[in-house]
Specification:
- Keywords: Decarboxylase, Lyase, Purine metabolism.
- This is 2-oxo-4-hydroxy-4-carboxy-5-ureidoimidazoline decarboxylase.
- Its EC number is 4.1.1.97.
- Pathway: Purine metabolism; urate degradation; (S)-allantoin from urate: step 3/3.
- It is a single chain.
- With 172 residues, the chain is an all-alpha fold.
- It has one domain: Oxo-4-hydroxy-4-carboxy-5-ureidoimidazoline decarboxylase (UraD-like, Orthogonal Bundle), CATH 1.10.3330.
- It contains 8 helices and no strands.
- It is globular and about 50 Å long.
Length: 172
């Protein structure tokens, strides 16, 4: 399972993250996941913003036909069929969030309902900047880990990573 840069770039748009994980020798999925998490934890905020720029707003369909766009559409499937008032609430919440924090609201959408995601958006609007940056980093790490697992399995990314479980071969 040697993954190329194009495959990895679909997992995370940060060039610094990509350089670090693409440089790994071998095909150990556990090592890839551990390295990914470590690098994500160490990224500067500018690197996180670079990754965020590749994510569509929650409630908006990703354009394009690449792997990342396809995954994003599948990950946001919980919004398919959402009522008009719920979609309107997302649009307003996204606007308020971007005005407050200066970037797109990021949440692991896989495995979450539209109501759950909206509740999280509204809750996180009350965060201070430091708290929100930590939450964004944690959500990005979950999204990237899910996408790495999808790549390894050759499957579309759906569901969520195992909560509270370390990567394969990692101590708790």
């Amino acid at each position: 399972m040697r993954l190329g840069e194009r495959d990895l770039a679909a997992c995370c748009a940060s060039r610094r993250w990509l350089a670090a994980v693409a440089a790994l020798p071998g095909d150990d999925l556990g090592e890839l996941r551990r390295t990914s998490r470590r690098v994500l934890d160490e990224l500067d905020w500018a690197d996180i913003e670079e990754a965020l720029a590749a994510h569509p707003r929650i409630g908006e369909r990703a354009g394009g036909d690449g792997r990342e766009a396809d995954w994003s559409r599948r990950e946001q499937a919980g919004l398919d069929g959402a009522a008009a008032e719920l979609r309107a609430a997302f649009a307003e919440g996204n606007r308020a969030y971007e005005e407050r924090f200066g970037h797109v609201f990021l949440i692991r959408a896989s495995g979450r309902s539209a109501r759950e995601m909206l509740d999280e958006l509204l809750r996180r609007l009350g965060n201070d900047a430091g708290t929100e940056r930590r939450e964004v980093r944690a959500e990005l790490a979950e999204i990237v880990d899910l996408r790495l697992l999808k790549l390894a399995d050759g499957k579309p990314a759906e569901g969520k990573p195992a909560e509270g479980k370390p990567a394969e071969g990692e101590d708790a």
